[in-house]
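Dear colleague,

Following up on yesterday's call, I've attached the two folding results inline so they're easy to grep. Please treat them as preliminary; we haven't cross-checked anything against experimental data yet. The first protein's sequence and structure tokens come first.
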Amino acid sequence: MGKTILIVEDEQNIVDILSFNLSREGYDTLEAYDGPTGLQLALEQNPDLILLDLMLPGMNGFDVCRKVRQSGSSTPILMLTAREEEADKVLGLELGADDYITKPFSMRELLARVKANIRRVEMAPPAAQAEESGDVLRLGRVTIDREKAVVTKDGRPLELTQREYDLICYLAAQPGKVFSREALMEHVWNYEGYVGDVRAVDVAVRRLREKIEDDPASPKFIVTKRGMGYLFGG
């Protein structure tokens, strides 16, 4: 059965181009031309991925994204934006979007990102292989049960998004090893040979720290190695 992509975009020509190219790749598509309709379809149809424009009539993309995440949905959201402002991109990621692509975009790049985000959801277990045998990693105060897909700290379950879970699993599989942002984009975001904006990694790390660290401003678990990347300190 084909994967379904929800396109939420108010420009007819862009919707037509996206729908045509996605269909050629074997995807089914749903279309919405305003925010409220997009939100309704996202909640009722449970698509495999959402392509979400920011500037929409009725309800902007930020609000649609926030409401989708508040509903408990973990459907990958790829933002389409004509804005270059860094703050807009970061806000979208912090509201729960998985990635963004700036207009005008390469169709080849967009299709690659769609495929990568859908593949990430399908992957089980995460790409990294733990050094400890079995499906449970115990790293000090943090335990990762990969069979149940549960992360606990001091015995308390943490409410993580799929991306945050994938990220901590990947880092914790090799404690103390530094991973560059580009490497994390390649192995956690599944963007092979990624070269480009890596801000999505920083946002995901910040959100993860807010959930796992005693003091996010002075992290002990997800540690920054200045000029190099991130490591799991435990």
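Below is the second protein, in the same order (sequence, then structure):
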Amino acid sequence: MIVPIAMKTPKAQKSREQILQAAFTLFRQKGYEETSMREIAREAGMAVGAAYYYFRTKDEMILEIYSRTQREAEIKNREMCSETRSFRRRFSGLLFYRLGLIEEHRKLFVVLTQKGINPSNSLSPFSAETASLRKAAVRLMEDTIEGSDLKISSTLRPILPQLLWFFQMAVILFWALDTSREQTRTRRLVEVALNLMVPLFGMSLLPLAGIFNRSVVEIHGLLNTLIQEENVAPSPKKAQGE
């Protein structure tokens, strides 16, 4: 979402912050669907019209949180990439850092998962409305891979950033529903998945890996059908071993 210049002044930034804090306080207390814009304005201590000036809908407030976590994740990822070449450490570090950013809103995200699975909903990570955020998140995966120690075939390398983004979405869904203490099951899920994925990526370099590579490419294509205004990765090269 592009923020008009008038909304970038210190006063405007303060007002936006007041509205967001009021909104998320009410979302936690009453629930997302049950909270009205009028109630948010009252909680923020301003007129309803003023609240609508900064955020036309409650969904825009959620998208603002999405944008903030994306910007913070980009900063953190640059730090991690400068500190280590380990793909495993980079990717898991980025994933859990992102989860940490939304931890305080975890109950809200449980509710939002119902919207997230519907690509036509504006808050879905697969929707047209979130296309710019989705593309930024995929670019972040590209940065995580670039310069790392990950070994992978030239067939799968172009589509890997988006495949990792899909995996991240699955982990966030699991995390939102994970009732284990401090979401230990989520951490174990990521650990086991990386134990499986990293060696498999390395195996994609083998001469007889053609069937495996073609299968991964097909899975990527099927997953892409979920996305509105698709951000399709470049067409993969001929699989090795074919």
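For the second protein, one point worth flagging: The domain at 58-225 is CATH 1.10.357.10 (Tetracycline Repressor; domain 2).

Best wishes,
A.L.
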